[in-house]
């Protein structure tokens, strides 16, 4: 592993740094396990892994307060784990079991937690952006001083509804952070081929929304930017845009021909920019942790992920009667 010299000194405590390491590692190992279960046929349908992007959500969650909300796209497992949802419930939803967050009926892209203020999990590109502004509208109306983190991708950023949302969010000074996770690709289309202006964060200018670009492979930079954005929103100044430059190591979803980028490109990012390795180096070089401390964290994470995988296999499939719950229509089951 090539060493990366951090441009910044950690401005957080050793315990915080360790918790970022732990939380990013949990996401990475969870996603690796999900990939394995998919390969074994235990997970079906769509499944989009977050490997490589861990620092984005962990850095931003570190800037959130109890009661703040989050809403994201289909690449959502990391967001759920980072806001404290139970890995067992997430994994069991992936395997379509009763113990899953949507009782096995939602799968990878459709999970929610009222308790953790996690509003999904959305499969339609761009569609969660107006919903995020809606959540922020409710908070503003209720005057509860909460902020909503609305995550979407570089591809989604080219959708018309994003700009309708920017307009209204700015007009009404809504407390929403628009988080653009720019991983440089929208399925197999690179940003260079799809996007007229590469600095997406500047697109708020037309609406009077401030924004900035952030190194998404540096969890400390993300946390710092998150703190600034949250302070802006909480003080009543309206929305803020964070364009977080990141990279996904795996394919778009579990089926991806991977012809749109070279192996060398992916390898280079992994070797030179990996966010988990970065924090590992900071912990060791700053003598905030020993190799043994980190091994103990690795072991703890491995056990959590293995337990989640076991639970996701042992939990029963939902009863057929579940088909008639959580639906809008009030109809009785039909006898065949
Ligand atoms: C409205 C709509 N159009 C197309 C799709 C198919 N689709 C799914 S993901 C995706 C790419 C989105 O890329 P990006 O916003 O960069 O997010 P990323 O997958 O990189 O996280 C597309 C086109 C969709 N789900 N919804
Ligand atoms: Mg993308």
UniProtKB/TrEMBL annotation:
**What does it catalyze?**
N(6)-[(R)-lipoyl]-L-lysyl-[protein] + pyruvate + H(+) = N(6)-[(R)-S(8)-acetyldihydrolipoyl]-L-lysyl-[protein] + CO2
> Which GO biological process categories is it annotated with?
pyruvate decarboxylation to acetyl-CoA
Name all Dehydrogenase E1 component domain ranges: 23-320
Q: Which cofactor does it need?
A: thiamine diphosphate
An example molecular function term from Gene Ontology annotations: pyruvate dehydrogenase (acetyl-transferring) activity
> Which UniProt keywords are listed?
Oxidoreductase, Pyruvate, Thiamine pyrophosphate
**Looking at the keywords, is Oxidoreductase present?**
yes
Give the Enzyme Commission number: 1.2.4.1
| Pfam families, per the entry | E1_dh
Task: Supply the CDD domains for this chain.
Answer: TPP_E1_PDC_ADC_BCADC
Q: Does the keyword NADP apply?
A: no
What is the role of this chain?
Answer: The pyruvate dehydrogenase complex catalyzes the overall conversion of pyruvate to acetyl-CoA and CO(2). It contains multiple copies of three enzymatic components: pyruvate dehydrogenase (E1), dihydrolipoamide acetyltransferase (E2) and lipoamide dehydrogenase (E3).
How is this protein organized at the quaternary level? Heterodimer of an alpha and a beta chain.
Q: Which NCBIfam families match?
A: PDH_E1_alph_y
Kindly provide the name given to this protein in its UniProt entry. Pyruvate dehydrogenase E1 component subunit alpha
